[in-house]
Specification:
About 40% of the residues are buried. Strands 3, 4, 5, 7, 8, 10, 11, 13, 16, 17 and 18 form an 11-stranded mixed β-sheet that branches. The chain has a 7-stranded mixed β-sheet with strand order 2-1-6-9-12-14-15, with no helix packed on it. Helices cover about 15% and strands about 50% of the residues. The chain is α/β, with parallel strands linked by helices. It has one domain. The protein has 5 helices and 18 strands.
Length: about 280
């Protein structure tokens, strides 16, 4: 058995999904245009629509999900004055792992006067998941960013729950090379017990974070003005030139409803059509 173990490991590695998208967009007299598009592995990017001066992009995972040992890389650059709204074709599903982590590495760069709305659909985690994700953002002074990421721990409508697993989620945002926002979320082993605590999610199984740069007290007031319409819990605050909203909801459908309301209110970029279907 031990003699066959290396061969088994090689076979496992050979069956893992890997993908990379490297996308650069630039401003032109006719609006934002693609300057460079590179696709590798199971990741694709498509450009179905234009919204005013902004270019719409949709990422597609042809592998149909991720599991342990899979790795996806996203490298997106928005040139000075260019505008890009990026979403995903569907929610990303991260399945159970027998050992190694699924890995997602996101690198975003926005030039002076540029705008990026990074609005992928939800990431759905399954029981015994193992996910390591990093999001690194570099903004020039005067750049605009709207970044939203949502995580759903199991599909409640299908009776699914995430009892155990591992999530490591690291975010770093730099403005003019200076670190402006940093956080790391780590959940290990008994995820369901952690989410059940009143100080964490109070039993909710869907969470999200939205970051807007630049953001202000005006954004905070606009979101709080629609608080009576929220079906879950939403909190927002602003400091040092950016606004951050946090979401907790009973399930993915409730979270999507609240996210849609907040992103529309923040009004930096129009919501992708896929969010409204």
């Amino acid at each position: 058995m031990s003699a066959r173990a290396p061969q088994a490991d090689e076979t496992f590695a050979g069956n893992r999904a890997a993908g990379r998208i490297a996308l650069t967009v630039a401003a032109t007299a006719a609006g934002t245009r693609r300057a460079r598009v590179h696709e590798a592995g199971s990741l694709r990017v498509r450009f179905p629509n234009r919204t005013g001066q902004a270019l719409d992009a949709v990422t597609v995972n042809s592998a149909g999900g991720m599991t342990g040992g899979d790795r996806f890389d996203f490298d997106v650059k928005v040139g000075a004055g260019a505008r890009l709204v990026l979403t995903s074709a569907a929610a990303e599903k991260i399945y159970r792992s027998l050992g190694p982590d699924a890995e997602i590495a996101v690198k975003l760069e926005v030039g002076e006067g540029g705008m990026l709305a990074w609005l992928p659909q939800e990431t759905i985690l399954f029981d015994r998941v193992r996910l390591r994700r990093s999001i690194d953002v570099e903004l020039a002074r005067g750049a605009n960013l709207l970044l939203a990421e949502a995580i759903v721990f199991g599909r409640s409508a299908m009776g699914e729950a995430v009892e155990q697993g591992r999530l490591f989620d690291r975010w770093r945002i730099r403005v003019d090379s200076a670190l402006a926002f940093a956080e790391t979320v780590r959940l290990d082993d008994t995820i369901a017990q952690f989410l059940a605590r009143s100080a964490s999610a109070a039993g909710g199984v869907a969470i999200a974070t939205v970051v807007k740069i630049p953001g202000s007290d005006k954004d905070v007031a606009a979101v709080r003005a629609i608080a009576d319409n929220f079906a879950g819990e939403v909190g927002i605050s602003a400091w040092n030139g950016f606004a951050v909203a946090r979401f907790v909801a009973a399930d993915g459908a409730v979270l999507r409803r609240d996210l849609t309301a907040v992103l529309t209110t923040l009004d930096l970029a129009p919501l992708p059509r896929l969010w409204l279907n």
